[in-house]
Structures are given as structure tokens and as C-alpha cells.
Amino acid sequence: MDKPLKTPPPYPIASVDHALRAATILQMEGGATVSQIADRLVIARSSAHRLLAMLVYRDFAVQDEDRLYRAGPVLELAAHSQSLVSRLRETALPHLHRLVGLLDETANLTVLTGDTARFIASVESRQALRVGSREGMVFPAHRTTAGLLLLAELPDTELDEVYDAERYRDRVAERPDLDALRTELKRLRRNGFAVNKERSERGLIAVGVPVREASGAAVAGLSVSMPSVRYAPRRLEPLVTALRNAAHGLEEELV
To answer: Distance between CA atoms of 110 and 137, rounded to whole angstroms?
Structure first.
């Protein structure tokens, strides 16, 4: 069995985690107030203020005349507030919350960025044993549920470019077997959903479906993640049905 792709440090530092998550929010969503950061990170407003002040000091953030914090010069790829990622996240959050209310498993929205998949929104299950938030995290696309679904949408020529051998010259072991990957992606296109059984992390199972824009192109993947001890094959059909209903509702709002 493969080792987990993301192993939490043995002695996590909450303040560092909060700062990194705040920087990710500013980068992906364009801006936030002190109160919004405090709410998202579940910390006191005074703590959020001190955190943002340090990000400004180190040029990870700037504060405009409206006292809104935005990504600073260090975060070169700061997203505009009306970007697709920002709009996707804002539109998806109510659907993610409804999925969690219905299934009581962690729900995620993910986009494809080259050969990686970035989690742009995550709502945690309320259960004590649950999959934690993956918001802002990046994984190899071929090792994630949504990443596989979005790779399945690419023409062969684009898939070849994504996994060009030259790009993996210094990390050959990380490059997937393209023949095997194409076979798997063909099956995913036919099924319209993906099941990830401990592929990205030991003890975790995820099920996902694509989210499409009006043109029919897949722009994101919607998934639920759960501890493997709570998954059984009989759960697959209701999980896929719930995900497809949520994806359809999200797609209608994206038009």
C-alpha cells in the first residue's frame, strides 16, 4: 500500500497553520476582512487581526482603503474576486453544506491545475471520526477523485503534455503509467463518477462526480470523503445520487 501523500507533522503549530490558511484564502478568493478570516479559521477576531498584520508585514498581504485584506506581492498568483475559482467556491459552499447535512461526511470542491488537483472548498463532517478539511491543499491529480475525473476530460494530446516525460525527468517515480491511466480514465468517462479507495491517503475513501459549466466542459470535481471503516459498496449508489443532485444544483447556478 502506498504511503499517505499528506502526513500531518507530529507537532503541528496551530498559529502557522492559521497563517498559511489565511494566505491561501487571500490568494484564491481575492480578499477578506478580519471578521471573515476569524470565522473561517474559527479563531478570535483579535487573533485574526494579529495574524493579518504579520502577513502584511511580510508582504503576503496588503490592506486597501476599505480595510479589506488582499494577497500581497509575495503571492504572485492572487486571484481576482470575480475569478472562476472564487465564483465556483462561493456558489458551491451552500451545496457542500447540504451534502454534509445529508451524508454527514466531509464534502469537497476541487479544480485541476496542470498535473495537480487543488481543493478550493471543503466542509467537514460533524462526526468525531472524520476526514479533515483539505481546503487549499494540492495533491497529484491522478491520486485524487476529482483530479481523475478532470483528467478524464482531457484529449489524449493534452494528457500527453500534462505528463510529458521531460517534466518528470527529476522525479520519474512520480509519473503515472500513461497506458494504465488512459484505461482508467476511459472507464471513469463511461461511469461518470470516480471512487478513490485509499489512493491518496491510507484509511480514506472518496467518491466524486464532475461539475460542468454551460458548455458541457468539466470545471471542477465534487466529492465526499470518509474513513474507510464507514464505507461499504451498498453506499455507493446513494452517494453518487446525492453528489449528482448537488452537482446539478451547482451547475444551474453557474449559468
So the answer is: 10
